[in-house]
Amino acid sequence: METLQPIQERKANRIINILSIVIPVAVAILLGIRQKADLGYWTTYLPHINAVINSITSLLLVLGLYFIRQGNVLAHKRTMLTAFALGSVFLVSYVLYHLTNESTPFGGQGWIRPVYYFLLVSHIVLSIVVVWFVLRAVYFALTSQIAKHKQTVKWAYPIWLYVSITGVIVYFLIAPYYTH
């Protein structure tokens, strides 16, 4: 097992920290743009695609846990890197949708309204937090720092799984209110 030089480690940590700040800030700025781009009607399908991506990611996360508990490191690695790639595709798709379409207001009433907003707010907050954990977990795994990877995954995994699952639940709760 090759250990990284302290300078390389600091550089990697700096990049992870910067990305963990830049990604949520960039998404917030892009979401705040009032003038929507017209890329065509196809962009109205992106929330549905995003729900599929989140569903698959949730399944991959559970499979990844299964594989590592079975000692199948290669299957675990492939599964988790696929989940990471899907998370990246989701991010691009999510931003693209919100750059081209107005946000859909939730129309539910009664007890479901506070449930929806609790899930939505916790999903958003934790989706910001999880970026740092996931980037570190992937970095530690790819650099064979397994002890640090395991330590990071104790936090990254449940948060990432929660974000993926609540993304799907929030989608199903708001889907009846899409106008397209």
UniProtKB/TrEMBL annotation:
**Could you tell me which species this protein originates from?**
Spirosoma montaniterrae
For this UniProt entry, which residues form the secretion signal? none
What keywords are assigned to this protein? Membrane, Transmembrane, Transmembrane helix
Which PANTHER family does the record cross-reference, listed alphabetically? DUF420 DOMAIN-CONTAINING PROTEIN, HYPOTHETICAL MEMBRANE SPANNING PROTEIN
Lineage here is: Bacteria, Pseudomonadati, Bacteroidota, Cytophagia, Cytophagales
Protein name (database record): DUF420 domain-containing protein
Residue spans crossing the bilayer:
12-33, 45-68, 80-97, 117-139, 159-178
- Domain of life of the native organism: Bacteria
